[in-house]
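Appendix B: complex inputs.
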Amino acid sequence: MKRLLLVAALAAACAQPAKKDYSKLVSSNPRALLVVPVVNKSVDVDAADYFLSTLSVPLAERGYYVFPVNLVKRMLEDYGLADASLVHGTDPVRLCALFGADAVLFVTIEQWTAKYLFLTTQVTVEFDYVLKDGRTGEELWKDHETGVYSSDSGGGGLAGAIAAAIVAKAAPNYMPLARRANATAMAYPGPGFPAGPYRPEYRKDLPAAAAPEAPAAAKPAAPQASPAPK
Amino acid sequence: MRPPNVLGALAALAGVAPFGCAQNTMYRWGGYDQALYDHYKNPQRRDEFVAKLSGVIEEAEAKGGLVPPGCYAEYGWARYEEGRGREAVVSFEKESKQWPESRPLMDKLIRNVARAKAPATTPAAVPASAVEKGKK
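Resulting structure:
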């Protein structure tokens, strides 16, 4: 039964009939993404840094330039922004200007917990991802992922080595679930990012509705010196 | 019903395997994410972190691939923190050259290194007396 539940949970996480509105992301067309330190709502104080270490690779693999997360973290500390919630409360336009980024990814850990029940260990991670535009501060994209792993008594034959790795010894290993959540969040098509400029399918994989034709309001149509009275 | 479910679970969990070691990535990450993780887990072992960053770069360069975005800069920053400004600048310049998106930030960091170095070098570089002697 436990196995069925796990499968159901994973299937639900993967299936998402993603009818996402990509129009803002497509018209903003960011190349360089800033990933700032993670806000941690769990009680595990180490979770924020651990999770931060998992974000660069999947994001860069989507074809974007990703600023080095540790350098960014240290520079923000130098600017007096050692607390991630302070960083998340800072104007995205200002943050992006500091680094020359086109957009900034804010990630929050909602859950990072292990429950030890009578015969099972249940490990849960839950994340909230929001990408904001570096010029307008507008939200361009968001996603939410949950990953649950539940062991049988004794780790139970399900996926031997991996199951053992998650609930090994005294400390559960959250990282496989965290990486899995990122992979799902960033996968495309799906909830994730269309190909960035370093992928060959850049601008060729866009959903029909969000195709670039209309440059939208984000980029003011060149000259015209619109005297637009507000 | 049961066998397919178990297979499905296996397939799903197979995706749990860490990034970086898979063949189908665009970049050769060489354990960059693991190096960061280890650094946050054991910050006192800073030398290992710097050595791993250096390894990521060497491996990617040796195999003729692109050094992944951010890696030169991360390494440069580590050197900058150690006060090894010249090495830091070399890495910042490489990042800037390979990844144009990083240029504004790298330029800023390079200027910072120069500024940090200035007080130390100024007295040695142009001692007024030396200039006067030269004139005579």
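The CA atoms of residues 78 and 112 of chain A lie 28 Å apart.
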